[in-house]
């Protein structure tokens, strides 16, 4: 655990029946102040109940296992009420700090870049709110003008605004598809998506450019719509600025989310490889687990990451905490956690009984991914 703080509220041990019950098992975030982790902890488990052979898990200093046990012998494991919090800074996840063999880079330059990105996002959010306020003011002026003229027909300015908003939605949707392709297919997927989306981008940008004073609809209105066109021009300009911010933010997000596809920190040079610990588990059950992720691109971009309000304004939620991944029940049998039938002990040639601890964790992670899918 690399010196990570672990706490629990209560533990009950029955040596006679070989049973252990643990409540409120918490793995805290390592170096939380240096990396500025936002989550309260790394893992919290409400309850763990296990039945096992106590003699197989006892390892004495300089002696090792007792009674000739060569693997951890665990019969059943029940895990309930689990919360996992996953965060990352560039390509360093909070759980990477638990592995002492990884060469973790210095946190200072990474955190400086991370804080600068947060400041840019805050400025973009502030500009978006200002544009929304100006848009609401223009909408109110148009409504008052329509009421004063006594007309029941839809304002021409409103029609043009709706057209511009539709074009903005198409453009944002195209950019979102690029983000999805980057997340699912890496650089190759992004390259293919750019080629496929090129025509759509060009078409939408041409439509946006066509909304100019040279439009025949505007020329036919004469001097009566000069003042109205001035307002509409400002409105289209504001929408264009908003589009630029949207594209810039999406490109920035794609760049930073590509950190999810980067390689994890490498192992330290000369780090000795310890002898693997073997384990044998009869059955495992997980109930009510939730995985919370922050600034991590998980799967494809769904509607809850980019949403449009009724007026076509975009609400951006790619960064920050995502909706939790919920696992109501996960069951693993002994057959799923057993070694392959062809596995043999390299010294005795006998079939292998247990599996390495890394293999055991890999089986659990793959099963969880299958349940999520």
Summarize the structure.
It is built from seven helices and 13 strands.
Q: What does this protein structure show overall?
A:
The chain has 373 residues and is of the alpha+beta class. The chain has helices spanning 32-35, 54-57, 107-149, 156-210, 216-219, 226-257, 357-372, and strands at residues 6-7, 10-14, 19-27, 43-52, 59-60, 64-65, 72-89, 92-93, 278-294, 306-308, 314-316, 325-333, 355-356. Strands 1, 2, 3, 4, 7, 8, 9, 12 and 13 form a nine-stranded mixed beta sheet that branches. The chain has a two-stranded antiparallel sheet with strand order 5-6. β7 (72-89) and β8 (92-93) form a beta hairpin. The chain is elongated, with a radius of gyration of 29 Å.
Give the mean pLDDT.
76
Count every helix, treating DSSP H or I runs of 4 or more residues as helices.
7
* Rg calc: 29 Å
Strand coverage percent: 15-25%
What percentage of residues falls in helices of 4 or more residues? 40-55%
Helix and strand element order: EEEHEHEEEEHHHHEEEEEH
Which residues form runs of ≥5 with pLDDT under 50?
212-220, 298-318
Cα distance spanning the termini: 29 Å
SS elements, strand count: 13
Could you describe the largest sheet, including whether it forms a barrel?
9 strands, mixed
Structural class based on helices, strands and sheet pairing: alpha+beta
Shape: elongated
Helix/strand layout:
Elements: E1 6-7, E2 10-14, E3 19-27, H1 32-35, E4 43-52, H2 54-57, E5 59-60, E6 64-65, E7 72-89, E8 92-93, H3 107-149, H4 156-210, H5 216-219, H6 226-257, E9 278-294, E10 306-308, E11 314-316, E12 325-333, E13 355-356, H7 357-372
Parallel strand pairs: 7-9
Antiparallel strand pairs: 1-3, 2-3, 3-4, 4-7, 5-6, 7-8, 9-12, 9-13, 10-11
Helix pairs in contact: 3-6, 4-6
């Amino acid at each position: 655990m690399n010196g990570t703080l672990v706490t629990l509220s209560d533990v009950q041990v029955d040596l006679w029946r070989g049973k252990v019950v643990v409540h409120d098992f918490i793995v805290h975030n390592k170096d939380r102040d240096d990396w500025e982790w936002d989550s309260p902890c790394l893992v919290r488990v409400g309850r763990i109940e296990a039945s096992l052979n106590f003699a197989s898990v006892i390892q004495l200093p300089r002696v090792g296992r007792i009674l000739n046990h060569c693997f951890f012998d665990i019969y059943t494991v029940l895990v309930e009420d689990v919360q996992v919090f996953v965060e990352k800074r560039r390509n360093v996840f909070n759980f990477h700090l638990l592995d002492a063999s990884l060469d973790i880079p210095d946190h200072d330059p990474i955190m400086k870049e991370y804080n600068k990105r947060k400041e840019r996002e805050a400025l973009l959010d502030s500009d978006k709110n200002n544009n929304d306020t100006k848009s609401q003011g223009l909408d109110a002026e148009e409504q008052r003008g329509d009421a004063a003229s006594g007309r029941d027909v839809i304002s021409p300015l409103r029609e043009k605004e709706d057209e511009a908003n539709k074009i903005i939605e198409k453009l944002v949707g195209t950019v979102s598809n690029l983000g999805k392709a980057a997340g699912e297919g890496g650089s190759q997927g992004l390259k293919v998506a750019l080629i496929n989306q090129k025509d759509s981008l060009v078409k939408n940008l041409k439509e946006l450019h066509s909304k100019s004073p040279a439009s025949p609809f505007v020329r036919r209105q004469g001097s009566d719509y000069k003042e109205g066109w001035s307002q509409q021009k400002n409105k289209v300009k504001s929408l264009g600025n908003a589009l630029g911010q949207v594209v810039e933010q999406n490109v920035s997000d794609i760049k930073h989310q590509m950190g999810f596809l980067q390689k994890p920190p490498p192992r330290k040079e000369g780090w000795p490889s310890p002898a693997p610990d073997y384990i044998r588990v009869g059955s495992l059950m997980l109930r009510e687990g939730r995985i919370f992720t922050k600034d991590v691109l998980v799967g494809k971009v769904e509607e809850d990451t980019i949403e449009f309000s009724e007026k076509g304004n975009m609400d951006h939620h790619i960064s920050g905490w995502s909706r939790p991944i919920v696992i109501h029940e996960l069951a693993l049998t002994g057959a799923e956690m057993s070694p392959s039938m062809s596995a043999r002990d390299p010294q005795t040639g006998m079939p292998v009984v247990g599996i390495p601890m890394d293999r055991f964790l890999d089986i659990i992670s793959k099963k969880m991914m299958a349940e999520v899918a």
